[in-house]
Design brief:
282 residues; alpha+beta; 4-stranded antiparallel β-sheet; 3-stranded antiparallel β-sheet; 40% helix; elongated
Length: 282
């Protein structure tokens, strides 16, 4: 067999299609957020010793966002799989069963040569792409290696989208912009707690606990809010910077693998990555 150049061109189209999906998400989320169809409703308890601000949505977050996200994620993840398939054809001139792009959080899983193991999936490609893919594996000690984190996030989203709605959207509050005050001066005996998770309707983003009653505690300034989704233990701001960084690193991985065709014994540079825009280019 020979490598089908139309199939390689299709991989590039998948990347561009994923970027289009994220562009749509960006525009729709920006429009939703600009209208600010949410508010914080203050509650006072224990005679002013406890103050809560509860999240209320005047308009629900669209379920269609999860569908658009799932389509973008599938395009990127399948492009990675197809890279390994065609690298196998390029290197050995024949397909092998069980090939794919492995994502292993444990080294022992990646190093298994039996079916389902990481090395089994890439056994038919050259030394250069093999070493490059191993470098991207999100082992615990590599949690700061951004390309590996991007691949792990993409893989987690892909697995979720196969079995259920990709995730539940919510709002993420920036703790540095929320400051309660008590006229005429801020209360010095109060402690502020801010929930930085991805929050849903009726959640409590802000709590203020006071040693003595302060019935007039109010918010000073506006809360900066991001539309986010939960991915594993972290929040991903789809349509914003984090989603685009994930897409950018994934595209870089794919293009580096495509560049290995015909010279798979050569190493692939895993230290230099293309600069990616924080928001979709216009």
């Amino acid at each position: 067999m020979k490598v089908d150049q139309r199939a390689l061109a299709g991989i590039d189209v998948k990347i561009k299609r994923a970027e289009e999906h994220f562009g749509v998400l960006h525009d729709e989320m920006l429009a939703w957020h600009t209208d600010q169809p949410y508010r914080l409703v203050q509650e006072m308890h224990d005679h002013g010793c406890k103050h809560l601000w509860r999240l209320k949505l005047d308009r629900p977050l669209p379920v269609e966002w999860a569908i658009i996200m799932g389509e973008a994620v599938h395009d990127l993840r399948s492009a990675l799989e197809q890279c390994v398939y065609w690298l196998t054809i390029d290197h050995g001139r024949r397909p092998l069963p069980g090939t794919g792009f492995p994502v292993s959080s444990r080294r022992s899983d990646f190093e298994r040569h039996t079916r389902g193991g990481g090395l089994y999936q890439i056994r038919g490609i050259g030394a250069g792409p093999q070493a490059f893919i191993e470098k991207l594996q999100p082992y615990p000690q590599r949690w700061r290696y951004a390309p590996g984190v991007a691949i792990r996030t993409l893989h987690d989203l892909w697995n979720k989208d196969k079995h259920r709605l990709v995730n539940i959207w919510g709002l993420h509050f920036n703790e540095h912009t929320l400051r309660p005050v008590d006229s005429p001066r801020p209360p010095i005996d109060c402690t502020t707690w801010i929930d930085r998770r991805v929050l849903q309707e009726n959640a409590i983003p802000l709590r203020v606990l006071c040693a003595t009653p302060h019935p007039n505690v109010k918010m000073d300034g506006d809360a900066i809010v991001n539309i986010s989704m939960r991915v594993g233990r972290s929040a991903l701001r789809a349509g914003g910077q984090s989603a685009w960084i994930m897409t950018g690193y994934t595209a870089d991985v794919i293009y580096k693998l495509l560049g290995a065709f015909g010279r798979q014994d050569a190493p692939i540079n895993s230290s230099i990555w293309s600069a990616r825009p924080a928001y979709p280019p216009r």
